[in-house]
């Protein structure tokens, strides 16, 4: 039984379309018995979200609060098919945790599987990127086999996102494809609630059901234990 110890994907009211404060999110993670939480606010390319100054001031948020670990992170955006995202390498180096995802407000859907797979693979060469967020989005079709193979080679995790059924209707088949391919190559996976309200923090039910269905071993899930997560993040960040 996989038991994620850290929620690696959460949002706060700073992004303009979520409803809780940073403190409420951390408190909720602690109350649920998690060992940590990732603050992964939407990057600056997302309309209505924060500016770089928000991430640059993370220093005031302690890395330990209410007895749990706090990761100062971001959910960056793919901005262009060439693989460019809304953070510079220098900015990424200041973060503890980096997810990169496709969002319709930043990257228009409608291109080919090959184009989106090339884009993600290109971005995965950036050291500081840890996780590809919700690669199950059917608006951005991918070659799951190639994505999982390259992610395994480059040491990146593919996310199994618990908000996908609500936020990305019809994403289940693509999620299954990603999981099958990840199983084949031993690709690392991550689990996140993608909570936009603190009551959803630590809600991993959909992700756990999909992982179980695909019979994914615990060792493949980066946030299934604290030592495993710390070792994973150390491969991309200097902290
Ligand atoms: Zn997202
Ligand atoms: Zn998100």
Give the SSE map:
Elements: E1 6-7, H1 22-31, E2 36-42, H2 52-56, E3 64-65, E4 68-77, H3 89-92, E5 97-101, H4 113-123, E6 131-132, H5 144-154, E7 157-161, H6 164-167, H7 172-185, E8 188-192, H8 205-213, H9 226-234
Parallel strand pairs: 1-2, 2-4, 4-5, 5-6, 6-7, 7-8
Antiparallel strand pairs: 3-4
Helix pairs in contact: 5-7
The structure holds zinc ion (2 copies).
Notes on the protein architecture:
This protein is an alpha/beta fold and 239 residues long. The chain has one domain (6-234): Metal-dependent hydrolases (TIM Barrel), CATH 3.20.20.140. It is 32% helix and 16% strand. The protein is built from nine helices and eight strands. Strands 1, 2, 3, 4, 5, 6, 7 and 8 form an eight-stranded mixed β-sheet that branches. Strand 3 (64-65) and strand 4 (68-77) form a beta hairpin. The protein is globular, with a radius of gyration of 16 Å. The model has no long low-confidence stretch (mean pLDDT 98). One zinc ion binds next to loops.
């Amino acid at each position: 039984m996989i038991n994620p110890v850290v929620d690696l994907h959460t949002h706060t009211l700073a992004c303009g379309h979520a409803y809780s404060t940073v403190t409420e999110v951390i408190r909720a993670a602690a109350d649920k018995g998690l060992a940590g939480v990732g603050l992964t606010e939407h990057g600056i390319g997302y309309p209505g979200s924060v500016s770089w100054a928000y991430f640059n001031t993370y220093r005031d948020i302690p890395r330990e609060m209410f007895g749990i670990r706090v990761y100062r992170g971001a959910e960056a955006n793919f901005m262009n098919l060439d693989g460019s995202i809304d953070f510079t390498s220098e900015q990424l180096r200041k973060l503890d945790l980096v997810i990169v995802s496709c969002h319709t407000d930043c990257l228009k859907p409608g291109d080919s599987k090959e184009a989106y797979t090339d884009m993600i693979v290109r971005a995965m060469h950036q050291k500081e990127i840890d996780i590809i967020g919700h690669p199950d989005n059917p608006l951005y079709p991918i070659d799951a086999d190639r994505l999982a193979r390259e992610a395994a080679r480059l040491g990146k995790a593919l996310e199994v996102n618990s908000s996908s059924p609500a936020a990305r209707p019809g994403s289940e088949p693509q999620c299954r494809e990603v999981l099958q391919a990840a199983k084949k190559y031993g690709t690392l996976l991550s689990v996140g609630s993608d909570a936009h309200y603190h009551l959803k923090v630590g809600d991993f039910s959909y992700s756990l059901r999909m992982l179980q269905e695909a019979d994914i071993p615990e060792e493949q899930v980066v946030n299934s234990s604290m030592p495993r997560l710390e070792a994973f993040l150390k491969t991309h960040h200097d902290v």
